[in-house]
Amino acid sequence: MLGKTRGIIRAYLPPVLWVIGGFLLAELLRWAAVGTTWYWLATLASWLSLAILLAAIARAFWVSWRLWRSHAGVPATSEKS
């Protein structure tokens, strides 16, 4: 069970880091836009955070599908009393 837990953590860690890193970068761009007259930086920050969030969600769904789908070569275990 411990090996499966480590696998799940390794599988879901990249999307979490993408979201955190993306939002940090977006906030830096937003603060840069506030300090200057380059308002397109704030727009870029919004689109960047949205794109990273969607990519992370897509990866999480893909990982979930890969982890929890039934494998054709592995027989299902059934418990009979």
Any key phrases for this structure?
2 helices; 81 residues; mainly alpha
Radius of gyration: 20 Å
Order of helical and strand elements: HH
What overall form do the CA principal axes indicate?
elongated
Main sheet overview: none
Distance, first to last CA: 24 Å
Binned strand content: under 5%
Query: Structural class, please?
Result: mainly alpha
Uncertain parts:
none
Number of helices: 2
| Quaternary class | single chain
What share of residues is helical? over 70%
Average pLDDT works out at: 77
Number of DSSP strands? Answer: 0
Fold and architecture overview:
The chain starts with a helix and ends in a 13-residue tail after the last helix. The longest helix is centred in the N-terminal third of the chain and has 34 residues, at 2-35. Helix 1 packs antiparallel against helix 2. The protein has helices spanning 2-35, 40-68. With 81 residues, it is mostly helical.
